[in-house]
């Protein structure tokens, strides 16, 4: 019996060990075979501090004026400009970039008003609409509970942030957003969905989430085919401020 077991198991064991240990012999492979030297990446000088624009960024707002923006109807921006920041003037409406964009990296800093004691969605609400239709929520979400997919750094009504990295109202906060534009088939159906990554105050809170369509307040989101479009900042009636806004097209 013992002999039989040895006769069966030893060769099987040897087979398994050798199969597991089998390695591709790369001793004769030239490492240069997998190196490529064409398409050398362009040199970009990074910003000196976190959040400072790199050399190839398009500055959308540096605190001095609204030259890159217009109001929703195409006229002059009527928001307030003070101490290097722009602030929503309630009732003056959304503002949008004059330039249109597809896939981008966007840096934007924002602050919700310190003297706003309203709760939930009324707690310092604004928003950043990529391509005029995909909203990353701006809200005071520091000890201010609302529906999770409507709090700060949510993709509004679609994805809550993975964690709540909010600073208290009155403090400046940052978003670094990496946005991939959707593509559409000739018949108008979505071919590849929009994708969003959001870093909130240095913390990854959205990781390449795939959007189900444009942001809608009521009902489920859906896609309508579109081309490049503006970045839009929301007037939701609250005195939300923005500063240091720059973009890189991807
Ligand atoms: Mg909003």
Anisotropy-based shape: globular
Unreliable runs, pLDDT <50, ≥5 residues? none
Helix vs. strand class: mainly beta
How many helices in DSSP terms? Answer: 1
Number of strand segments:
15
Radius of gyration: 25 Å
> Sheet bearing the most strands, described?
8 strands, antiparallel
CATH class: Mainly Beta
- CATH topology (level 3) name: Jelly Rolls
Report the end-to-end length measured between terminal Cα atoms: 70 Å
Identify the CATH architecture: Sandwich
Mean pLDDT across all amino acids: 92
Fraction of residues in β-strands? 25-35%
Q: Which hetero compounds are present in the coordinates?
A: magnesium ion
Number of domains: 1
Short structural description:
It is built from one helix and 15 strands, in the order αβββββββββββββββ. The protein has one helix at residues 2-21, and strands at residues 58-61, 69-71, 80-82, 85-87, 95-97, 104-111, 126-130, 134-138, 173-180, 183-184, 190-192, 195-200, 203-210, 232-233, 241-249. Strands 1, 3, 4, 6, 9, 12, 13 and 15 form an eight-stranded antiparallel β-sheet that branches. Strands 2-5-14-7-8 form a five-stranded antiparallel β-sheet, with no helix packed on it. Strands 10-11 form a two-stranded antiparallel sheet.
């Amino acid at each position: 019996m013992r002999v039989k077991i040895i006769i069966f198991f030893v060769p099987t064991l040897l087979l398994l060990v050798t199969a597991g240990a089998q390695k591709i012999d790369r001793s004769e492979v030239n490492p240069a075979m997998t190196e490529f030297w064409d398409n050398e990446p362009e040199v970009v000088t990074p910003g000196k501090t976190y959040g400072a624009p790199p050399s190839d960024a398009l500055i959308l707002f540096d605190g001095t004026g609204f030259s890159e923006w217009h109001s929703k109807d195409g006229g002059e921006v009527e928001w307030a400009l003070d101490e290097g920041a722009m602030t929503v003037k309630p009732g003056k409406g959304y503002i949008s970039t004059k330039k249109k964009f597809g896939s981008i990296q966007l840096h934007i800093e924002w602050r919700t008003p310190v003297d706003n004691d309203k709760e939930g969605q009324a707690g310092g609400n604004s928003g950043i609409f990529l391509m005029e239709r995909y909203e990353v929520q701006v809200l005071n979400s520091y000890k201010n509970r609302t529906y999770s997919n409507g709090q700060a750094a949510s993709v509004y009504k679609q994805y809550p942030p993975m964690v709540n990295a909010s600073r208290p109202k009155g403090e400046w906060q940052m978003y670094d957003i990496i946005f991939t534009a959707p593509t559409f088939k000739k018949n108008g159906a979505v071919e590849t969905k929009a994708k969003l990554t959001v870093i909130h105050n240095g913390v990854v809170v959205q990781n390449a989430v795939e959007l189900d369509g444009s942001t809608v307040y009521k009902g489920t989101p859906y896609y309508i085919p579109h081309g490049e479009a503006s970045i839009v900042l929301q007037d939701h009636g609250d005195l939300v401020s923005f500063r240091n806004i720059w973009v890189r097209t991807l």
